[in-house]
Hints:
This protein is of the alpha/beta class and 319 residues long. The chain has two domains: 18-105 and 215-316, Periplasmic binding protein-like II (D-Maltodextrin-Binding Protein, domain 2), CATH 3.40.190; 107-209, 3-Layer(aba) Sandwich (D-Maltodextrin-Binding Protein, domain 2). It is 42% helix and 18% strand. It contains twelve helices and twelve strands. It has helices at 2-19, 38-45, 64-72, 83-91, 135-146, 163-171, 184-191, 201-209, 230-249, 251-261, 267-273, 288-301, and strands at 27-31, 56-60, 78-82, 96-98, 100-103, 107-111, 126-130, 156-160, 177-181, 196-200, 218-223, 279-283. The chain is globular.
Amino acid sequence: MLNKYYLVLVMLFSAIGLNAVEKLDKLIIAGPAASISHPMFKIIESDALKDIAGNVEFKLWRTPDQLKAMIINKSVDFIAVPTNVAAVFYNKKQPIQLLNVSIWGLMSVISRDKSIKNIKDLKGKEMIVPFRNDVPDITLSALLKKEGIEPGKDMKIHYTPNIVDALQLLVAKTADTALMLEPIASMALIKDKSLQRSMDIQKEWGKIFNTEPKLPQAGIVAVGDMTKNQKVIDRFLEEYTKAIKWYKSNPAEAGELAAKNLKMLNKKAVASSIPFVRFESVPIAKAKKELQFYFDLLHKNNPKTVGGKLPDDSFYDIK
């Protein structure tokens, strides 16, 4: 009888061992102040990943250079990035894996100029644009060129190194128009009542390129050794997807949580920004068609924006 119970216990513990995820001492996740990072705060606050990590820490990147340093130095496990940046690092043979596309658009043109309603109306205007040679700039450039407008020649652009500087210049009336990302776009509207949301960049994208009005703009990347840890990847994506649903369904609480973790944000602005963010976690394999279309357009405008060449098929396969 004892041998029978012993055998049952051995089988039970063996099954548990096979299904267990080795617990990490620390899991480091990173992202910008933009909406893509906000569900991460819900994961941390609720201790949702306690089964795989003793501690989960968030790191903020403010500039593209900080983002690149985190990937090159492998100082994070997961990081929210523009999808084209993932393509650049993939083509540079860096150990990264784009896991999903979660942001399908959060860019708006904010302006005091009521005559601006579409991309063509930007001709002859002055405009503030953050992150030169990064997603906002290269997306806008693709739209402008398609409409026959040469950036810098047919319109004047004031570039800023980050989105907060763009907000400050807009409110200071350095120019009346800016390309903004949520939730900073909503912050601008709260700070200055003379501003209005002039156009949705995603709708312009769909109209001008005759495609769906959404952009595979940003997603989550696994870095370094984490690219090989499929169990942790699966658990992180599971909780991140749950956190996105909570974020979209609870705007007031989401605004509170984001502002608590990112002091530069206004809780009301975050809450009001949520309806203007196309937020859905789609696995990279299912987003392949949209990514290839997006990368192809970026490559035609400037090959450097995707690392000099289009990613091959293995880019879309999670190992």
